[in-house]
């Protein structure tokens, strides 16, 4: 059992933590509930965590306004809402990262205060963050046990024991990772698994998961759900935040919805529907999630022939037509993101050729690509996308400034501010204004800013790598509509996505990769999840 591994893993300092009684709850029977007020406790099932009247404000923004929430023992409680609804803020309060301005927290019926993340962990509340917080230069094992390293009788870290304990934990979780490998060499999906193992190792009574599958394949997500089921049987309460509607209904017992920093309501997952949850989230119906327009796609806009990056991918050839959305699918590690980076000049190809309008181009850097009317939305907004220390205005304007808003050597400040403000409004970025520092935005709103940057350049060729990762359902529909509208003007779009419904619903054709090679191309009318997975796992 996972709990047994965690129990064996603690050194003398952690023994005190174990003896405090964390993780000793028993399995409870899950009882479906009808929509409730969070202040009314269901007597049929113990309440593990309760928050009442929580409020939190930041400069110019009310993030939470008198919200309440209950988590019952041995259940998965999904927390849903648009970006900026307050979900992550509440979870950061429960994890000891933020302090509330008002309100009360009770854990197992006892008043609790979490002044620091360590304080929250010591009281049994662990969190897996949407943005990964691992130490790249340290090993998997060192990241799991940081601050709790087992030591020998001389007080020196016992690395063999730490590696052995980590291997046992990873094996029990069915995570295939080498505990001695440095995290910087791992994929985003593998890093997420390290975060999960680290959180589980604390034997938390409450485990918060903020977009845990955002970087995982369907197979890896299924593995995570098995872990969640095991944790649930141990009586652990799990708060699950995700914008992926299908997985919410697959694993959750209850669903609560926040909107604009306020609590809207709670439903039993088995007693509600996707449409009802969306209405609660956005206050209106969303008629079309994938508003794909049929556009004539005859003229070849962009061509790639025998493109290769030594040791990563080879023999990649395809055409992108004007007005076409070309989906690029494949499991993580298939080389799809590497192809996108090579096309954009981030990692220049070792062989092959690229043509735009039949004219051969040499793309040795992103500047070369931008000069040729290309734009690239990276999959990792934190590491290679947003400039977190700068404001919204500076982040959106940076790619279009030189080409569109400089005349006679002078920057047209009013024009660029107006354009960035309009783009922010179009994408519904929730902030106090365009001078808000991007670091202070939610992850989903950071993604919107990044998308706005590239849409402002009015590209002829737009490469989107996981464009709706961490984006709520309403924003997804809006972004899909913008992409479809851009394609209708004759632009070509390459769409990389791990979400099968998105890549199928938005693409005219779907190109599938496996281990650095193209394994097939499917037309829109023949593409199914089964066919894509068959090609992706050849």
Folded structure, characterized:
The structure is a single chain. This protein is an alpha/beta fold and 538 residues long. The chain has three domains: 2-282, Rossmann fold; 293-373 and 459-538, Rossmann fold (3-Layer(aba) Sandwich), CATH 3.40.50; 382-458, no CATH class. 34% of the residues lie in helices and 24% in strands. The strands form five sheets. The chain has a six-stranded mixed β-sheet with strand order 6-7-8-3-9-10, with helices on both faces. A six-stranded mixed β-sheet has the order 16-19-20-13-21-22, with helices on both faces. Helix 1 runs antiparallel to helix 6 (159-172). The protein is globular, with a radius of gyration of 24 Å. It starts with a helix and ends with a helix. Mean pLDDT is 84; it is low at 1-44.
Measured on Cα atoms, how large is the radius of gyration?
24 Å
pLDDT < 50 runs, ≥5 residues: 1-44
CATH topology of the largest domain: Rossmann fold
Fraction of helical residues:
25-40%
Distance between the termini: 34 Å
CATH class term of the largest domain:
Alpha Beta
